[in-house]
Amino acid sequence: MRRGGWIVLMLVSGLMMDAALAREAQPLAEDPVLERRINALGEDLRCLVCQNQSLADSHADFAIDVKNEMRLQMQQGRSDQEVVDFLVARYGDFILFKPPVKAVTMLLWFGPFILLAVGAAVLIVTLRRRRQRSEQTPLSEAEQRRAAALLGDTLDGEQNR
Amino acid sequence: MKLSWRALIPLLIFVGLAGFLARGLFLNPTEVPSVLIGKPAPLFTLPQLHEPAQTFGPAEMQGKVWLLNVWASWCVSCREEHPLLVRLARSGVVPIYGLDYKDDPAAAIGLLQQQGDPYVLSVSDGNGRVGMDYGVYGVPETYVIDKQGVIRYKQIGPITEQALDKTIVPLIKELQR
Questions:
Q1: The pairing of beta strand B96-101 with beta strand B66-71
Q2: What is the pTM of this model?
Q3: A86-90, B4-8, B148-152 — which is least confidently predicted?
Q4: Cβ contact (<8 Å) for B132 and A69?
Q5: Alpha carbons B67 and B65: distance in angstroms, whole number
Q6: Are B147 and B64 in contact (CB under 8 A)?
Q7: Is A91 close to B29, i.e. CB distance below 8 A?
Q8: Which of B128, B133, B137 sits opposite A48 (nearest CB)?
Q9: Which residues of B touch A (CB under 8 A)?
């Protein structure tokens, strides 16, 4: 029983170490809950200087400044949405990795689905037409004989080689 | 075999796609259009660079067209546009005010002594908080602000001779009317 307890303890501490090592950027601030909130929100925000990096990942001066401002505002009790609105009012929708659905972004959001629908429609129409054509015009006897002769020739040719 | 018009569809799609991609190839990805254009310039009150006891804010500029140039002594591309700013200031077309962004005041004053001071005055934005209100994400940036205190244009990155002659000066002249 005592040994079992040790193993459990070791496993648990091992897991905890993993979790600690797997963290992205170890926050140094005193309030880990707040830091987690900033990082979670920062995942969906673009660092404008390093563009394809998120604010959470970035150590650019710009990202650090913005995160400090986010921290300050959150400490003042502002909600995530209010913080995001604050940033969008200054840096525009571009700071969001997920652009909001608006008149100008309609094509961006729904374009791929429209293309998919058009593609599916073209495919269905083409398949239907092809089927109709092959059902409507069966081969005549002469054509069938010719086909058999051609296929037979091919087979013979291959056997002779 | 006769060529039906449908045979041209793939070609048309290709040309359309190539057109979009070609346009995208020549866009500047670091230039993010400002959301502040057409909006009132955010108000602030900051200490002046040369006279820290005195302050300055956009509220004092009501009724005037002016330029707010965000700069810093540590900013390399600011030095590129500096001679142009000095020239523009000498021409007397428009008053230029500087926002010294996240800078050491002593270094900033030193630079102006060395290279000339195009600014009516500069203010110190030590922690960059005012810069954030203006959506500054790279220095230099320059804002054209009209008589009603509305931002009419934003130059991201250094001012070029071309931008000055073709866009900024004509816009200022129009706004001054």
A1: parallel
A2: 0.72
A3: B4-8
A4: yes
A5: 7
A6: yes
A7: no
A8: B137
A9: 29-30, 32-36, 102, 128-129, 132-135, 137-138
